[in-house]
Amino acid sequence: MQLQPLVDALRDIVLKQRIVHADETPVQMLAPGMKKTQRAYVWAYVPSPFADLRAAVYDFSPSRAGEHARTFLGDWKGQLVCDDFAGYKACFEQGVTEIGCMAHARRKFYDLHVANKSQLAEQALRHIAQLYDIEREVRDLLPDERQRIRQEKAKPIAAALHSWMLAQRQLVHEGTAIAKALDYSLKRWTALVRYLDDGMLAIDNNWCENQIRPWAIGRSNWLFAGSLRSGKRAAALMTLIQSARLNGHDPYAYLKDVLTRLPTQKASELSELLPHNWIPASKV
Fold first, then answer.
1. Domain count, the chain
2. What's the pLDDT tens digit per position in 150-173?
3. Which of 41, 55, 81, 127 sits CB 3.0–4.6 Å from 99 for a disulfide?
4. For residue 28, how far is the Cα from the chain centroid?
């Protein structure tokens, strides 16, 4: 594919970041030799929302098996922000550091509160809301200042929340919905609060979920990928389109210019055509 060298170059740059967010979403793919579809997956990989690099790299796979994430990440050994999907576990055994998603932990309590107005769930939501209040306060600060304020304000709140969860877990019955919600956070607590010690880390994985949203919207229109090959082509094209958007470019203008210049572009100058570096030919 003509655009694949650009996508590969962008992937390499994203994997030079020490923090990467990952998420995946199902899409339908036409099963080979059959007249029906099967479930395939698109994976999204993005740098920290606090990083200078603005990019989203997509990978299309025929299943949700963890091997696809391991293949994409290769020998990368940074900090991976993700939900609790088991497919990432092998990465953590190979030197990748797990960063939990507080939004997923919150969702367990939110769903419980919506379902039966659980007072314990409501208390947990209040504690977590305090952590998010601090994130809104530090969002636009430099990383060192963000980390300092988190240590000063958020760390005591997180410690109090942890103590409260441990105490409540002793009081609720095994197998109940509130016990499961508490266990979800308690079992992942170390990963959930690592963001407190690093101003470049986000409290949750919402940034990556936002970058995968175009796929969720698009699949309502195009319905399914015709094959694994066409799915991978779509992932490559969407990588450049979404990355162009993240850098404030009109995707059509970007792709038109890049497709015109790419055939004669020197390999050593390929990075000039990446969305975060791109300058229209008319301005060069």
1. 2
2. 999 999 999 999 999 999 999 999
3. 81
4. 21
3-state secondary structure of 239: helix
63 domain residue, yes or no: yes
Distance CA 81, CA 68 (A): 16
- Count of CB atoms within 10 A of residue 26's CB? 13
CA nearest to 85, candidates 225, 209, 211, 239: 209
234-277 pLDDT per residue, tens: 999 999 999 999 999 999 999 999 999 999 999 899 999 999 99
DSSP state of 270: G
Q: Helix axis angle, 102-116 relative to 177-187, nearest 10°?
A: 170
CA nearest neighbour of 106 among 88, 129, 133: 129
Classify residue 194: in a domain, yes or no: no
Both 61 and 130 in a single domain? no
Q: Which two tokens stand for residue 262?
A: 């790419």
Instruction: With respect to residue 25, please indicate whether it lies within any of the assigned structural domains.
Output: yes
Q: State CA 38 to chain mean position distance.
A: 24
Task: Tell me the residue length of the chain.
Answer: 284
Alpha-carbon span 223 to 228, nearest angstrom: 14
Tell me which amino acid residue 158 is.
Answer: A
Q: What is the CA radius of gyration of the chain?
A: 21
The structure's pTM equals 0.93
Give yes or no: residues 117 and 36 share one domain.
no
